[in-house]
Amino acid sequence: MAVIPREVDFEPVNALVQIHRGKVRHSYALPDHPELMLVVASNRLSIFDFVLPAQVSRKGEVLTAMNVFWREKIPEFVALLEHEIRDELVAFGPAIDQYLPLYLRDKADLHRIAVVVRKLETIPFEMVVRGYLTGGGWKEYMKARQVSGHHLPDGLKKHDKLVHPLFTPSTKANVGHDVAVDFRDVMTRYPGIDKLVIDIYSAANGYAASRGIVIADTKFEAGWRSGEKNSSSYLIIDEVLTPDSSRFGKADDWKMAVETGGDPSPFDKQLVRQWGIEIGIDKRDPENEEDVRWVHAQRVPEDILQKTTATYLEIFEILTGDSLDTFHETHMRIR
């Protein structure tokens, strides 16, 4: 489990038994619903597998609302594909109250950052899909002209659009860095998972393109309901296509970056990643106590935090067509 700095180490829901505390999310048992759990998104910020001593205002709200948005969209996408999608999401907004103890109900602040989901058996890999050669995929390509076992031709440029989206899974580390693995190993163990996540990514990227946005890459997590472990019953779990799990950019900026050799303006937490690279956080080891202490002693500049909040809110509005406050009211029924 990642070490959380004391400045941002808090329990959003004190009255329930915590099942898991992640870098950004907390999961809680629901006393009268043992098959379900409450998942609460925080404003915490993580890069390079470190949790930073900083928060991004309204980030938990954006992650929750965008997750709801895409989970409403995905059934529309897969109706045109060869998949049946079942959702882990049970309730959001005020609808979560029916699963909560009485003393936690009618709390709008909780409605904005929490959802009720089914407990599932999870696949121990992150299902990364790349449509563009950027980030970690670009680094792998530069070393060996391959990404997670996919051999690519010479001459590709940073941020190039790939001919076809690539399934590039990685390990799912509780502590330390995720590590890219050969896509064939995961496909052999979990038949059909590659086609599922590639099809969802492709449909989502097509929708985003209609809004002038590129989804360069994203990561999904998947699992099954207990007793249903087979390739026809995968469920997409956790967050879906958020600024934390995806790399977004404006299409015009992306095209210009490819042509000039520069970098596109980020629409995710890349501003924070870049700051972390400049001071060397990417070279530190999250399993080394001294490195953890050093990272926790750093302070993210306030202007970067403010720009990141503005970025999260802007990408949300571009993709959904609504401001966050409007989406809360009209889609999530939060007053």
Task: Explain what you see.
InterPro entries: SAICAR_synt/ADE2_N. Keywords: ATP-binding, Ligase, Nucleotide-binding, Purine biosynthesis. The chain is an alpha+beta fold and 335 residues long. It has a domain at 121-279: 2-Layer Sandwich (D-amino Acid Aminotransferase, Chain A, domain 1), CATH 3.30.470.20. Helices cover 34% and strands 23% of the residues. The chain has helices spanning 59-78, 108-111, 135-144, 183-189, 193-210, 251-260, 270-279, 289-296, 302-320, 324-330, and strands at 18-21, 25-29, 36-41, 44-47, 50-55, 89-92, 114-118, 121-122, 125-132, 146-147, 150-151, 161-167, 170-171, 213-224, 235-237, 246-250. The strands form four sheets. Strands 8, 9, 12, 13, 14, 15 and 16 form a seven-stranded antiparallel β-sheet that branches. Strands 1-2-3-7-6 form a five-stranded antiparallel β-sheet. The protein has a two-stranded antiparallel ribbon with strand order 4-5. Helix 1 (59-78) crosses helix 5. The mean pLDDT is 91.
